[in-house]
């Protein structure tokens, strides 16, 4: 659907990312070739340390690849100057990351419209109202991040990503801090963004129920793609993750998942790196 002939999606070709060097080198991504097709909702899953966040950061142009290529909407990121990369990120990409990256001195509303303020454009009032209503932020718009709960900060970050209607949204555990009802609404909003607006969503999650909202799930392990599942259901996703010997699907990311995995809970710690 894009004028770029690449459907507004993103893809990688033999993307490799190595952190550090010598004996300390960590191969976070090892020749990953994957597509996040335009107008589709793709979930990314895999054990802790599999490279999920690294993949998102590289595809979103926030980190350089060590080797290989990344294309967003047909544009190869490696060929861009910093300035053009910044512009592409601002104009085409919405981010919701685990660190919410909200500016502490701005109110929730100012944080939400910040991308537009930076770009010198104005938000579509009706869409802004819809996003604020669905994310139940109406009462909180005048508050600063420090006056908001983790879940509220998450919703502000999500609103900021949605409000510009970017072609592609990268979300790193967007429901991780939310209660199950708000989590389900957020997933519904991402689904609507895909179905109603033709946006592209790539979402890292540990939650099989969240992944069940996607059109496909990409499974990563040890920096490699090990499987791709179309039309995922929570049960099939959970089975596949168990097959990866994973510690996930168990108490990692909140109540939506607990509904699917009752009896499985056995908390798993984060390594705090992502
Ligand atoms: N900045 C960094 N410097 C060094 N190593 C890193 C860095 N970021 C990530 N890594 C390492 O790269 C590997 C992949 O990390 P990444 O955060 O992408 O995994 P993940 O699948 O997102 O994990 P999680 O589910 O725990 O968030 C891990 O071994 C991690 O320790």
TrEMBL record:
Is Transport found in the keyword set? yes
Keyword check for Repeat: no
PROSITE patterns for this protein: ABC_TRANSPORTER_1, ABC_TRANSPORTER_2
MF terms (GO), sorted A to Z:
ATP binding
Q: What is this protein called?
A: ABC transporter ATP-binding protein
Show the segment(s) annotated as Disordered. Answer: 236-274
The record, for SMART domains, names: AAA
Here the segments flagged for biased composition (Basic and acidic residues) are: 236-250
Q: Tell me the organism.
A: Actinomadura yumaensis
CDD domains assigned to the protein according to its UniProt record, in alphabetical order: ABC_MJ0796_LolCDE_FtsE
The protein's matches in SUPFAM superfamilies, at most eight in alphabetical order, are given as: P-loop containing nucleoside triphosphate hydrolases (SSF52540)
Cite the Pfam families for this sequence. Answer: ABC_tran (PF00005)
Superkingdom of this protein's organism: Bacteria
Tell me the ranges covered by the ABC transporter domain, including all copies: 13-247
Regions annotated as coiled coil: none
Q: Which UniProt keywords apply?
A: ATP-binding, Nucleotide-binding, Transport
Q: Which InterPro entries match?
A: AAA+_ATPase, ABC_transporter-like_ATP-bd, ABC_transporter-like_CS, ABC_transpr_LolD-like, MacB-like_ATP-bd, P-loop_NTPase
